[in-house]
TrEMBL record:
Phylogenetic placement of the source organism: Bacteria, Candidatus Curtissiibacteriota
PROSITE patterns for this protein: RSMI (PS01296)
Pfam families the record matches: TP_methylase
EC category: transferase
Main location (coarse class): cytoplasm
Name this polypeptide is given: Ribosomal RNA small subunit methyltransferase I
Gene that this polypeptide is encoded by: rsmI
HAMAP family given in the database record: 16SrRNA_methyltr_I (MF_01877)
Alphabetical list of InterPro entries matching this protein: 4pyrrol_Mease, 4pyrrol_Methylase_sf, 4pyrrole_Mease_sub1, 4pyrrole_Mease_sub2, rRNA_ssu_MeTfrase_I, SAM_MeTrfase_RsmI_CS
Main function: Catalyzes the 2'-O-methylation of the ribose of cytidine 1402 (C1402) in 16S rRNA.
Compartmental location: Cytoplasm
Positions of the Tetrapyrrole methylase domain: 3-203
EC numbers, comma separated: 2.1.1.198
Keywords of this entry: Cytoplasm, Methyltransferase, rRNA processing, S-adenosyl-L-methionine, Transferase
Amino acid sequence: MGTLFIVATPIGNLKDITLRALETLKKVDSVICEDTRITGKLLNYYGIKKTMISLNEFNEKAKTAQIISILKSNKDLALISDAGTPLVSDPGFYLVNEAIKNNIVLESIPGSTALICAITLSGYSGQNFYFAGFMPKKSMKRELFLKNILLLRKKLKFTIVAYESPYRLIKTLNNIQGLGGNIKIAICREMTKLHQEIRRENINSSIAHFLKNKPRGEFTLIF
């Protein structure tokens, strides 16, 4: 049996990769990734030449049997996502569970993840937090989801962390405002990248800002 290495990669700045991650990517037989173009840039930056297997949310179940077969043929593979830690709001859950069922050895190579990076800069406590990932896309489901976690937050007093795309940011902020009022929020944009921005303000100010300035990049919300 080969080993499936779950390898965290940079969330923006290509220098944010561990020595162990580089060693692993160099020694495995192939790299499983979401987008071969994005992974190709990372591998080329560090002079690593590997065959790549595309695995994303659309083909994960179809590709998993092939990947398990490769691992059973005594080949070592690395699973990475486009950015950050695999399985954290990224593909890989189905593959990892099938690997467990087939008694394949798993190794986790830790590293960057946007939610931890954002918490450290937000000014909010990271002692107890609820990670919501990407919230539901549809408005009614998103409102119900937010209503439930805001009610739970009142009882348990935890910090809420969520990811959001620029296309739904204003709708999500309006949902939070409608359910929680003019609460304090930290909005972390483009973590570790050239245009990183951290906004710490009342949610009314955030909505006003992004109505005037079109949201761009990836967002982490903390409230």
